[in-house]
Each structure stands twice: as structure tokens, then as C-alpha cells.
Design a protein that fits this description.
- The chain has a domain of about 180 residues: Cytochrome Bc1 Complex, Chain C, CATH 1.20.810.
- About 60% of the residues lie in helices and about 0% in strands.
- Helix 6 packs across helix 7.
- The C terminus is likely disordered.
């Protein structure tokens, strides 16, 4: 009758084999296995297993086509737009500390920001020019992707998401235009709201929602402020995350070179 040998305890470190290092021994301990769920990325199979075991990476594909992330494919206009959005968020948070959305204080706050607040003029210029450049970058990105045929199957869904992001970019710029509360902003929003009133069937309702009354006033400034700093940024970031996720997934799809015969 043979006696089965007792397996080594889990606390014992396995012998160091060729091609292994001390980090592998740490990963194979009880604590190490609880932290690192996937294997070391030595082969393509290990890379895929570690990718799917990651909470942050499992939403994205393991591989991407090289031409889809090359500079000539999109001139990195999408990356530029995303960086500019981050610049707007950071500079906008700084400006919020010194701005009150009230007709009696808004214009004075802007003047104080530019003359008395540390780096106020610089941060405001960064915010303003980032907004202008983001509109141009997003529009150029849409033109480039249209040239690339991103609206064609099977990626037409992400093209629609991109159109939504373009509309949100315009709305962000439009709502932020009123916040300085000067003559240029006042009359620009007045003209824009009158143009919105000419939309068939729902034009007057859109104008009423934007202005909060018959003319541009305190309600309009408050609504534009809430839209600009809270509602639209949250929607834009959410849609942008969906857009990036869909882009990574769609890059693995094969685009048909010919239309299917009927």
C-alpha cells in the first residue's frame, strides 16, 4: 500500500524555474493570486487573459488595427478635442470660484477676475481659447471622419454619437457665451433665441425653455449657467465615454469592400 505524499503548503514558495523571477513567486502566493488574477504577459494568450481579468481594460478589445491609431488616419483630432475638453473642465472649475450667476454681479465678477484674482486673466483666456479651438477641432474631426467613411456600415451608430457630441459642443459654446453678461453676450443670445423661435412647431417652446421668460434676464443667465457648468458637461463626458468605447470596439470590425448583392 503506497502512501500519498502530502502536497506542499500554500505558504511555501515554489522552486525558481528557468525564465522565472522572484516576482513570479510573489504572484503565486495566496495574497499574490488574490491581487493579480491574470498571468504574466509573456505570450499573446497571456496578454489576452490579463486583459479580460482587468476591471478597467475588459471593456476594450485586446487588439486594434495599427492603421486605425496612426496619425494619418485622423490627425489625432479626436485626441486634441478630448484634451481641450479637459482644459475647459479644469479652467472652468477655477473660474467658478469667482463667478456668481446674477445680473447684478456677473459683469463685475469678470472684471474682478481679470484685474485682481491671481492668474485670473490667464485662466479666462485659456478657457476662452480652448472653447474656440474645441469647436474647430470637433468640426474638423467630423469632416475627416466623413472623408474616411465613418458613417458607413458597420460604424454608422458611432457616427451618430459623434454628431451628438458636435451638437453638445455647439451648445456648450452657446451657453457659455452669455456668462460674461456684457452687451455683446446679451445681444448675441437675444438673436440666437429669436432664431430658435423659428423652428417649426416647437420653436416657441425652445425659446421659452432657453430664456425662462419673454426676454433675456436673470432667469436666462441662471439657466445658461446651470446648463454650462453641470448639465451639458455631464452629458458630454458620458457620451464621450460611450463614443470612445464604441470606437475601440468598432475598430475590430471588418469593413466590407463591396456592397452585398441583392
Amino acid at each position: 500500500m503506497s502512501v500519498t505524499e502530502k502536497p506542499p503548503a500554500e505558504t511555501e514558495s515554489p522552486p525558481l524555474l528557468p525564465g522565472r523571477d522572484r516576482f513570479d513567486q510573489v504572484r503565486e502566493t495566496r495574497v499574490g493570486r488574490s491581487i493579480w488574477r491574470g498571468p504574466r504577459r509573456r505570450t499573446h494568450r497571456d496578454t489576452a487573459a490579463a486583459h479580460w481579468a482587468s476591471f478597467l481594460l475588459h471593456l476594450y478589445p485586446v487588439k486594434m488595427k495599427r492603421e486605425q491609431i496612426a496619425f494619418r488616419y485622423s490627425y489625432y483630432l479626436g485626441v486634441i478635442s478630448t484634451v481641450l475638453l479637459g482644459s475647459l473642465v479644469v479652467s472652468g472649475l477655477y473660474l467658478m470660484f469667482f463667478y456668481v450667476p446674477s445680473p447684478n454681479q456677473a459683469y463685475g465678477n469678470i472684471q474682478t477676475l481679470q484685474t485682481e484674482v491671481a492668474f485670473g486673466q490667464y485662466i479666462r483666456n485659456v478657457h476662452r481659447w480652448s472653447a474656440h479651438m474645441m469647436v474647430l477641432a470637433v468640426a474638423a474631426h467630423m469632416c475627416k471622419m466623413f472623408y474616411r467613411g465613418a458613417y458607413k456600415p458597420p460604424r454608422e451608430g458611432n457616427w451618430v454619437i459623434g454628431v451628438v457630441l458636435l451638437a453638445l459642443t455647439f451648445l456648450m459654446s452657446f451657453t457659455g457665451y452669455l456668462l460674461p453678461w456684457d452687451q455683446l453676450a446679451y445681444w448675441a443670445i437675444t438673436v440666437g433665441s429669436e432664431m430658435a423661435a423659428y423652428v417649426p412647431f416647437i420653436g416657441e417652446d425652445i425659446r421659452e425653455i432657453l430664456l425662462g421668460g419673454p426676454v433675456v434676464g436673470a432667469s436666462t443667465l441662471l439657466r445658461f449657467y446651470v446648463l454650462h457648468v453641470a448639465v451639458l458637461p455631464v452629458i458630454m463626458v458620458s457620451v464621450l465615454m460611450l463614443h470612445l468605447w464604441r470606437w475601440r470596439k468598432d475598430n475590430m470590425l471588418e469593413i466590407p469592400t463591396e456592397e452585398p448583392s441583392v
